[in-house]
Amino acid sequence: MRSKRSFIDYSLDKRATLIALFRGATDACDADPYLLRAAKFHGERADRNCPVCKKDELVELRYTYGDQLGQFQGRIKTIAELMQMELEFGEFRVYLVEVCKSCHWNHLVHSFTLGDGKERKPPRKQKTIEDEDYR
Question: Tell me: the pLDDT tens digits for 67-116?
């Protein structure tokens, strides 16, 4: 991804959370059911094991947010889709979340901004299945 900027790494926060978890001070393996479902169907296998249970069930999800995305913000995207999006949108933020499908560990890994820097209006709102009126 050529336009990656404003990179924020959350590894220090992750380390502090893991230390607190192993000391029994917190329960960090509390992934939301929607996050677990997203991990099951859309997660991409991580190249490392879970830091809590040490199993190879760790997956990554990339969420996209930004005013220029309009109704399409908050969606999970693959690396290939992000590379296409960085040419279509001026600026949007990507959040990489790791989730263990076994023990339900979840944590924000890092975030960054993508886009070509050109200001654009959000795409026109398209009707989705949720907008349909069932009578």
Answer: 999 888 999 999 999 999 999 999 999 999 999 999 999 999 999 999 98
Q: Model-level pTM greater than 0.70?
A: yes
Three-class SS state of 42: helix
Q: Return the sign of the alpha-carbon dihedral for residues 49, 50, 55, 57.
A: negative
Residue 3 contacts residue 114 (beta carbons within 8 Å): yes
Assign residue 117 a region (left: φ > 0; alpha: ψ between -120 and 50; beta: otherwise). left
Q: Which residues pair with 100 in a beta bridge?
A: 58
Question: 31: domain range?
Answer: 5-17+25-118
The one-letter code for the residue type at 130 is E
Tokens of 47: 């190249």
Number of domains the chain contains: 1
Residue 67 and residue 122 in contact, taking contact as beta carbons nearer than 8 Å: yes
